[in-house]
Amino acid sequence: MFAVADHLLHLEGEALPRDVSAEAVHALLADGVRGVRCGAPVSGAVYGTLLNDRHALDALGDAVHAPPYKAPPRAPILYLKPRNTLAGHGARVSVPDANGVQVGASLGIVMGRTAARIQAREAFDYIAGYTLVADLSVPHASVYRPSVRFRARDNFCVIGPAVLARRYVSDPDDLAIHVELSGEPRFSASTSTSVRGVAQLLADVTDFMTLAPGDVITLGVPHGAPIAHAGQRAALTIGGFPALNIDFVAEGDTA
What we know:
The mean pLDDT is 91. This protein is mainly beta. Strands 1, 2, 3, 4, 5, 7, 8, 9, 12 and 13 form a ten-stranded mixed β-sheet that branches. A five-stranded mixed β-sheet has the order 6-15-14-10-11, with no helix packed on it. 10% of the residues lie in helices and 33% in strands. The protein has helices at residues 22-28, 54-60, 148-151, 198-205, and strands at residues 7-9, 18-20, 46-50, 77-81, 86-87, 91-95, 101-111, 127-137, 157-165, 176-181, 184-190, 216-218, 227-228, 233-238, 244-250.
């Protein structure tokens, strides 16, 4: 089992995440508190979901019927965000070149129980909570066979600041998503544009693979995610979750 009573937060310097109240999380991460950094509040496997946004499929247009795709996806398309990518609130992320880094804000579904071949109607019983995942990537046009080089660089999966217990999120399929860069609004979307909602996604994924307690699967990055460059700070929010901050720095400047 992986259980979350309230808000699971992993402050930098502490050995393990701890469960604290919503009020404590907001106080610790308030604008007046400088320099607060966190580790990722989870340690299980993290899976990204590709093309689970209607606008992303629409953007492919007729290309989805041509090689290399040949047809719209009939099952969830997943990719792994390995351990080297995991980071937390306040992370410093190296920007490899002048093309910048695409900042994908996604809802992270945190599993509380082992899930194999579950039905959509029972899916929420397997969820411990939700978190915010900044699924970062090097900008690229093709989404066929997601590239490790583009998506699995160090600190390219920033999670947190906390895992919210499931009871705090009444409808995960209708949450507003916002991304600011250096204090300026740059992107807005909603989880309501997902091809598969949370319950159906878990049902379809667990039809062919088992998810373990503490694993995270993202609902997917909405189409049109903004590009960040060295020197910028991103602030990501989903619904009423605490904001997740990331500092983008020049290659080699991650101290």
